[in-house]
């Protein structure tokens, strides 16, 4: 399967996950435990050795942009966080985290906390209203940990879907010198 086809399938998967996230948030009253379902896709793309850096960054950009459109956030906030998340996962190079669901949950929880913190920090910097829009420390911690926990618990369901799409690719050969 060509990279274009796999990329289109990943975008369709991301669109479906965003639709599911939106429906889940409106039908089931689970606030603040609303998962960010595209985050495991970004993590998988970041830690997978078969995903080229440019292709992964473009997919992260597009998925983040879709997330901005779905959530009504400040434009490019989630786009920036999605690309930063992909680059963080790529830079960490934690290939072994793809092997076990427990490691996937742990990595997704850590990255979701970092992405949530980045989102809160960026909103604080660029928001016009309050200097710190989320109240006290307890409320901020809840807004970081609750979605991260929900995202981490959903990660073992999302990782296999991305892995199935990406497994159709021919394996990249490492250059030997």
- Shape, per Cα inertia axes: globular
What is the percent of helical residues?
A: over 70%
Q: Based on DSSP secondary structure assignment, what is the total number of beta strands?
A: 0
Order of helices and strands: HHHHHH
Gyration radius (Cα, Å) is 16 Å
What name is given to the CATH topology? Answer: Arp2/3 complex 21 kDa subunit ARPC3
Note the beta-strand portion.
Answer: under 5%
* Major β-sheet annotation: none
CATH architecture: Orthogonal Bundle
Indicate the mean pLDDT.
87
CATH class: Mainly Alpha
Distance between the termini: 29 Å
Q: How many individual domains?
A: 1
Indicate the structural class.
mainly alpha
Indicate the low-confidence ranges by residue numbers.
Answer: none
Determine the number of helices (DSSP H or I, runs of at least 4 residues): 6
Write up what this structure looks like.
With 177 residues, the chain is mainly alpha-helical. The protein has a single domain (3-166), classed as Orthogonal Bundle (Arp2/3 complex 21 kDa subunit ARPC3), CATH 1.10.1760. The chain is 71% helix and 0% strand. It has six helices and no strands. Helix 1 (3-27) packs parallel to helix 3 (53-71), helix 1 (3-27) runs antiparallel to helix 6 (137-166) and helix 4 packs across helix 5 (101-126). The chain is globular and about 50 Å long. It starts with a helix and ends in an 11-residue tail after the last helix. The mean pLDDT is 87.
